[in-house]
Amino acid sequence: MSSILSIQSITKFYGKIRALNQVTFEVPAGSVFGVLGPNGSGKTTLLGIVMDVLKASGGSYSWFGNPPSEQQRQQIGTLLETPNFYHYLSGEQNLRIAAGIKGKGESDIPRVLEIVKLTERKDSRFSTYSLGMKQRLAIASCLLGNPQVLVFDEPTNGLDPVGIAETREVIRQLAREGKTIVLASHLLDEVEKVCTHVAILQRGQLLTAGDVNEVLVNEDFIEVGAEPAQMANLQGLLAGLSGVKQVRPFEHHVQVFFGNGVMDTGELNRFCFEKGVVLNYLQLKKRSLESKFMELTEEKAKARIATAN
Ligand code: ATP
Predict the structure, then answer these.
(1) Looking at the domain 220-287, which fold is it?
(2) Residue 170 near residue 139, CB atoms below 8 Å
């Protein structure tokens, strides 16, 4: 897959605050790319830089393999903040004004209204729209002129569950049409549901980037326990077992993670018994993506503190 956006070592200071620190990743063509991170992690700053609303303090980026230019930016539909629509005008009239400002897309209005499912309500005043409809109209405005790349900052922020579902469906539809979409989100759930790729930011630092299925893989693990006198022996045994990636004490038990698919629980039980450890607790568990995400951010934070010391 070729790269649509290449971000190379971007750093941004606001005075003494370092909002981004040498962030590097590639956005593949046709991907729905989530920039995921908690509030204040630098997502909006990064999108602002690649859309040339903000200047980076260091590093570079390129769109479509070329240095940034006004002409390229015109090929990108952006929704960085909610546009100012006229409340007393209809959805369609507002889009006509937006098309006039952009100098393109007037003939495109019926098409974009259809994509965001506002055709039936195109003649209603903007003030009568629900929040979800307002957001969909904002997306429609980005789609004027049929850009192949779309950049959205927190597209479902502030919406109710229905509005969130509607907006996500529009994003999925655009992805099916082959658009490349870059979206910032602080919601793991959102990224998991709509994105094919993800970059995780924490305090301006890139933790990891890549295919969602690789970065946020859902992992099963086994939790086992034995008499307190046997716990140290059990941990040693499990750590030496082939296929085991990590053994981690958790409350009165130990959690066993596998590199390549979880082991059969019966087999694990037999293995421990044959080695002289009788298990009094054995359970197959699912690790939620949420906890994986938390662990990822915590582990990297600890590693950074350790390096700094
Ligand atoms: P949110 O989801 O809350 O918008 P974010 O991940 O988009 O967060 P940014 O808004 O990019 O993060 O902010 C990154 C850091 O830069 C934060 O520490 C923020 O306080 C700081 N920051 C952002 N804009 C400015 C500014 N104009 N002046 C000073 N500091 C700023």
Answers:
(1) Alpha-Beta Plaits (3.30.70)
(2) yes
